[in-house]
Amino acid sequence: MAALGWLTPRRRSATARSVLAGEASAEAARKSSQELEELAPPAAAEEPEFPVLGDDRAAAFFDLDNTVMQGAALFHFGRGLYKRKFFETRDLARFAWQQAWFRLAGVEDPEHMQEARDSALSIVKGHRVAELMSIGEEIYDEYMAERIWPGTRALAQAHLDAGQKVWLVTAAPVEIATVIARRLGLTGALGTVAESVGGIYTGKLVGEPLHGPAKAEAVRALASAEGLDLSRCAAYSDSHNDIPMLSLVGHPYAINPDAKLRRHARDFDWRLRDYRTARKAAKVGIPAAAGVGAVAGGTAAAIALHRRRR
Fold first, then answer.
1. Parallel, antiparallel, or unpaired for β 251-255 and 234-237?
2. pLDDT of residue 288
3. pLDDT band at 34 (very low <50, low <70, confident <90, very high)
4. Three-state DSSP class for 109?
5. Quick check: pTM over 0.85?
6. Is the preceding omega at residue 51 within 30 degrees of 0, hence cis?
7. Rounded to an integer, what is the distance from CA 201 to the centroid of its chain?
8. Rounded to an integer, what distance in angstroms lies between the CA atom of residue 226 and that of residue 220?
9. Which residue of 136, 169, 278, 280 sits 20 to 30 Å from the alpha carbon of 200, by its own alpha carbon?
10. Annotated catalytic, 65?
């Protein structure tokens, strides 16, 4: 058995050298662990909850065309008016051509804007405001309800659930915008105001179309009246024309953005959401870069019509 003694572990007391080796090893392990922690990528900070529940000094402002709803509100409204014999077939053809042009080009033409404004006013002149509101309710059900983007609708609902007010902000007539806001359960709408006397449209605007910088001024005025803190508010749009409005708030979102807004949003680290499907990149590999339906583009296409002859 003595020959097998080498197989039996020997109990030896730790020497000073072994203690030193153990301590050195432990220290090296700790140092190595610290170095690995330093080299590891930092954990992503959790985003603060937004919208903030119960913040009554915050609100949300949503552009309408191609942000909340696919296409231009006035394009769909124009279809409804044509169905009701407000204008002739040749006007509808022109209407459709302009809508297609704006959808493809994604740019605006000042002459088209002026023509669109004048044509729209000629259509409604002499009609009662109540009549257009009633027609708007019908047209919403016929053409608009199925074109609401579910993703954007969910964003709006999140603000409502947090106890915040939510407004549409659009170049479309305020009457149409109000119908849509009410049907979506939103607080209300800011839109272009057509002059009326005794409940009848005069064919003139109050000020100018609510477009571009005018939208920002409307939001600023409403925020002041409502006692809102714009740094705590959010705004949502698809169009670079709404950069003035988006820049006002502390939480700007680019929704289904056109190419210019997408670039701007990336440069300024704004949040992006794109709810369009089955879309191909149109230019330089940017998804949905065609910029379908900038607000005023859709507006111009939708209202470049002539009033029917009575």
1. parallel
2. 28
3. low
4. coil
5. no
6. yes
7. 31
8. 10
9. 169
10. yes
